[in-house]
Amino acid sequence: MRFELFLLLLGLLLSHCNVGSLPVDPPPSEEFLVEISGTTVTITCPATDGNIVWQPAITKPSDNDRKYIIEDYDSSPRNLTCSSGDKKYNMYLNARVCTNCEELDALAVSGIVIADLLITLGVLILVYYFSKDRKGKTSSGAGSRPRGKMSEPRPIRKGQREVYAGLEPRGF
Fold first, then answer.
1. pLDDT by residue (tens digit) across 101-133?
2. Candidates 3.40.50.1370, 3.40.630.10, 3.50.90.10, 2.60.40.10; correct CATH number of 33-93?
3. pTM of the prediction?
4. CB-based contacts of 97: which residues, under 8 Å, 6+ apart?
């Protein structure tokens, strides 16, 4: 009962106080669109109207062009800004690109995974099928002892007698 009363009072206290609340910026309603293909990075500014100016101007985009194209991008981080009139949009670009990469769509990746599973299942079935016939048979490979009459053990040498002196003979 005391614990329930404590929780009730704590809930009332926290609901009437702004303890721990921090001002939060509203989420941006407009975002950059970044496309990566090989070593070419294409960035689209969220501004749609007016004269769009890109900073820094590595490649000279045409006026009113929303797309900013960086060819032969070297994966170094950059700060980019596009502005249109009084609106200014900032972006920190940290993209990894590679020259010898191949792009795969979801269908190709799922096909590779399914083919791998089918091949694994086929190998599993083959191993089961071929090992099923060998259950009753013995192998004569390495590690197998010969069948037949057991040979007598070798006698103990003179220097080894005291090691085995405390052992009593057992009957089988």
1. 777 889 999 999 999 999 999 999 999 988 887
2. 2.60.40.10
3. 0.44
4. 36, 38, 39, 40, 41, 73, 74, 75
